[in-house]
Amino acid sequence: MHLFRMYWQRTLRRPGSVFLWLAVPFVFMTIYTMVFGNNNSGPPKTTMAIVDQDSSLASQLVKGALRQGPVASMIDLVDARDTTAVDEMFRKEKASAALLIPDGFGDRLLRMESQKLILYKNPRHYIGPQIAEGIVNSLFIIGNGLINQFSAPMQRISTMKDKPTVDQIGEISQQFFLAGKNLRGLSSIRNIDVTIIEKEKDTQASGFNLAAMFFPGLIMFGLLSVSLNLEHRFQRDRTNNVTRRFVTAPVSPWSVAIQQRLYTASFAFVVGIVAGTLGGLIWHIPAHGLPTAVLIIMALALFVSGYNGIVFSLSSSVRAVSAISSISMVFLAILGGGFFPTEFTPPAFQAITKFIPTGMVNLGLTHCLTGRPLGISLPVLFAYCGAFFIVGMFMSRRRIL
Fold first, then answer.
1. Are 333 and 171 spatial neighbours (Cβ–Cβ below 8 Å)?
2. Mean pLDDT by 10 residues, the chain (401 residues)
């Protein structure tokens, strides 16, 4: 393993590039923190299910208010049949929250009786449920104020037992008109209250912050960049005939290829561990599932080493292979959710992400660090990444000289 030691010694003699590549995920995370804050703010659009057990004019008004105006730019509303359907949507992570409108909501609203709506929060999501909770609470604060302003004509309607006459309809309409004309401040009553329920609450995830969702993807992008830089070094060695002198030492091309792949994987692994540790300390990422996180980073190191070995074996042209590797690196990072949590991407995109090594790594790390079920199979991930590593080792041998 002479070459393996030599590559590491050369790196440690000039560690400037190490610090440069370590800085990549931190620069992006700092930008994200400046934009969103290091908490659950900075909301992307989220999905909320609604269970309408009342099917009244009042419940339709609630749904209409959630589907238009500024609210519609922050939330997608989907209908759900019942709470069983909500549980299924939560399990498949297709909704972050669900609002239940109980039977009799419209009748009790006209009678000015106090009542409760129930907002269920998906424990597997963190940003989305808080968006939904804030929107629903704000909506019903305004709604309670409007109910108070129009309480007189609403009470008149609730006391009517027979079919109203034309004169009564005109009188009630006039009362609504006058109440709207004199509308000034929204002095509210607590007619409608919202009960917040987090289904299957996971107390282990209470220390979550935004970095736990963004930083794993940035580490993945950083390791892709690190591996790309190392491959450029190997290519310069070939161009300057340094590798040829190793082979005539004699060291077989197979030995050179194996030690280069091992060096790249080990270097990426060390950078990933150091970056993850520093990021966890700086942004207070909860220390959930650390042994699993280490294994996932190890699998990622194998993948980036093998993948770039494959790419750099495709051409002997420095310019061509540099362009291919740079484009493919960005492509893999985007598909893997390297710049934005896949939780808020379309379902079709999420389905693709789960079959890409970078996506599997990002999903596993994010779920691991936020205390959720892993969502991927570690043996499958290692088989996938190990296959890339082996193929990369075989193909990079072609370009040793």
1. no
2. 79 69 70 55 70 84 77 82 89 86 78 77 79 78 54 56 60 54 45 57 48 78 83 79 66 83 92 86 79 93 92 80 82 80 72 87 85 85 94 82 54
pLDDT computed for residue 185 by the predictor = 46
At 307-325, the pLDDT tens digits run 988 988 887 777 788 788 8
The answer, as to whether pTM is greater than 0.85, is: no
In 3D space, the residue among 217, 218, 398 whose CA is nearest the CA of residue 309 turns out to be: 398
Cβ 13 vs Cβ 271: under 8 Å: no
Residue pair 271/222 in contact (Cβ under 8 Å)? The answer is yes
Please identify which residue in the block is written with the tokens 């980036």: 304
- For 115, phi then psi, to 5°, come to -155, 165
Residue-wise pLDDT tens digits, 11-56: 777 766 666 666 767 776 776 666 555 544 444 578 889 999 888 8
CA separation for the pair 119, 115 (Å, rounded): 13
Distance from C-alpha of 33 to C-alpha of 138, rounded to nearest angstrom: 26
Task: Give residue 378's pLDDT.
Answer: 93
The secondary structure of the chain, three-state, reads: CHHHHHHHHHHHHCCHHHHHHHHHHHHHHHHHHHHHCCCCCCCCCEEEEEEECCCCHHHHHHHHHHCCHHHHCCEEEEECCCHHHHHHHHHCCCCCEEEEECCCHHHHHHCCCCEEEEEEECCCCCHHHHHHHHHHHHHHHHHHHHHHHCHHHHHHHHHCCCCCCHHHHHHHHHHHHHHHHCCCCCCCCCCEEEEEEECCCCHHHCCCCCHHHHHHHHHHHHHHHHHHHHHHHHHHHHHCCHHHHHHCCCCCHHHHHHHHHHHHHHHHHHHHHHHHHHHHHHHCCCCCCHHHHHHHHHHHHHHHHHHHHHHHCCCCCHHHHHHHHHHHHHHHHHHCCCCCCHHHCCHHHHHHHCCCHHHHHHHHHHHHHCCCCCCCCHHHHHHHHHHHHHHHHHHHHHHCC
